[in-house]
Amino acid sequence: MNRFASIFLLSLAGISTATAHHGLGFYNTTELVEFSGKVIEFRLMDPHSILVVEVENPDGTISTWDVEGGSASGIIGSGLSQEFLRSRPIVNIKGFQTKDGVCTPRCRAAGEAFDFERN
């Protein structure tokens, strides 16, 4: 399996751009979270796009994560197409979870780095 690495959310769009818009005060930036899952939905929009990712937990349950990122133009400019995102790729994510850590109904995070798997 070939891997297509794309750091496209906060890092590609520019942390300063995201911070200028609303800051990272909503997120726990002292602890980086890492998880892998399947992209089940995406919303490419400006100023921040959202990836919705299904993650299988160690106990076999499924968590759904809304991961905020960069602009639609930045994401598409990085080489990720809507067609590819619709294919429900597996993605490995590093980012910052919200300070409250609440995952009901969904976990929320600000993405920092994404590594998409391609066949």
TrEMBL record:
<dbReference type="InterPro" id="IPR046150">
    <property type="entry name" value="DUF6152"/>
</dbReference>
<dbReference type="Pfam" id="PF19649">
    <property type="entry name" value="DUF6152"/>
</dbReference>
<feature type="signal peptide">
    <location>
        <begin position="1"/>
        <end position="20"/>
    </location>
</feature>
<protein>
    <submittedName>
        <fullName>Uncharacterized protein</fullName>
    </submittedName>
</protein>
<keyword id="KW-0732">Signal</keyword>
